[in-house]
Amino acid sequence: MSRFIRIEDPADPRIDGYREVRERDLVGRQGLFVAEGEVVLRALARSDRHKAQSVLLAEKRVAALAPVLDVLDPETPVFTAPQPVLDAIVGFHIHRGVLALGRRGDPIAAESLLEPLGPRALVVVLVGIGNHDNMGGLFRNAAAFGADAVLLDADCCDPLYRKAIRVSVGAALTVPFARLGRDVDAIDLLSRYDFAALALSPAGGRRLADVHRPARAALLLGAEGPGLPRAVLDRTRTVSIPMAGAFDSLNVATACGVALHHLLFAAEPEIQRCS
Questions:
Q1: What is the pLDDT of residue 21?
Q2: What are 221's strand-pairing partners?
Q3: Residue 1's pLDDT is what?
Q4: What is the pLDDT of residues 129-142, one digit of tens each?
Q5: Which part of the chain is CATH 3.30.1330.30?
Q6: Pairing between β-strand 78-81 and β-strand 4-6 as defined by DSSP bridges
Q7: Which among 151, 153, 1 has a CA at the least distance from the CA of 63?
Q8: How far apart are CA 201 and CA 221, in angstroms?
Q9: Alpha helix locations (H) across the chain?
Q10: Nearest to 37 by CA among 73, 53, 61
Q11: If pLDDT is split at 50, 70 and 90, which confidence band does 247 have?
Q12: 67, 98, 110, 129: least CB-packed within 10 angstroms?
């Protein structure tokens, strides 16, 4: 099992990475990220891409988390502290009592994610998603409905931001993702790998319920408010989710969940590629 180190002083330099968590969220962590909560720690422990650098636990949580800690590298330090000391370190009352510092895996090229996918595949493409709660919800949906990968454009926020990971219930650590460079044409990239691009928009030309699942499908989603750029909509098959009355807006994560559920359980895939 990982070795345990009891922390009694909130100023102990060995736990600098955990100090004033919210303030550190704003300035970045130089290749590290914070995983918060038991569910997220479990996801980090089984991640092939990201690794735990250390763990910080309230003493009352240690015994129950022993099976999770056993999965970690035995050399991973596990810091423990009484709840008041833990709260002083973090800068707020952390009732979950579970934190870890993770080291980001090396970036993955989008081509490396798309190329090995089989004849039936589903990817999510995010454009301009700047809200961390939405980002976490989108990854949670991607995991729940079997998306093979998530692609993010250059304007998307970080899926490994603490709050995004927490809202995703750890899915941001387990669903493969790649960030596209600003000069990458996402539609062209999808076409090269035979993905049918389905762009979700309130003004979409076809109702989601009428869409048959393409064998290799890419669901494109934009930020709430502006949505997907016109240049993207003009080059894809646009799809809408009809709503009651005159209401025409869903939270982007909610819309993603509805669309992915349909695509996962839709009838036989179309033979031809959409364009």
A1: 86
A2: 126
A3: 47
A4: 999 999 999 999 99
A5: 4-103
A6: parallel
A7: 1
A8: 8
A9: 21-27, 38-46, 66-71, 83-90, 110-114, 132-144, 162-167, 171-174, 186-192, 230-233, 252-265
A10: 61
A11: low
A12: 67
Task: Identify the residue whose tokens are 């949906």.
Answer: 141
Name which CATH class applies to 4-103: alpha beta
Determine which helix (DSSP H) or strand (DSSP E) holds 5, and give its type and residue range: strand 4-6
Which residue type occupies 124?
A: V
Read off the pLDDT band of 248 (50, 70, 90). Answer: low
Structure tokens at 187: 């539609």
The residues of the chain that CATH labels 3.40.1280.10 are 110-265
Relative orientation angle of helices 132-144 and 252-265, to the nearest 10 degrees: 10
Structure tokens at 32: 């590290």
Q: How many CB atoms lie within 10 A of CB 64?
A: 12
pLDDT of residue 28: 62
In the numeric block, the tokens 């100023």 are attached to 11
Q: In whole angstroms, what is the distance from residue 238 CA to residue 78 CA? A: 49
User: What length does the chain have?
Assistant: 275
Average pLDDT, the chain: 91
**Choice among 87-101, 210-224, 236-250 with the minimum mean pLDDT:** 236-250
Q: How far apart are CA 70 and CA 76, in angstroms?
A: 10
| 110-265: CATH architecture | 3-Layer(aba) Sandwich (3.40)
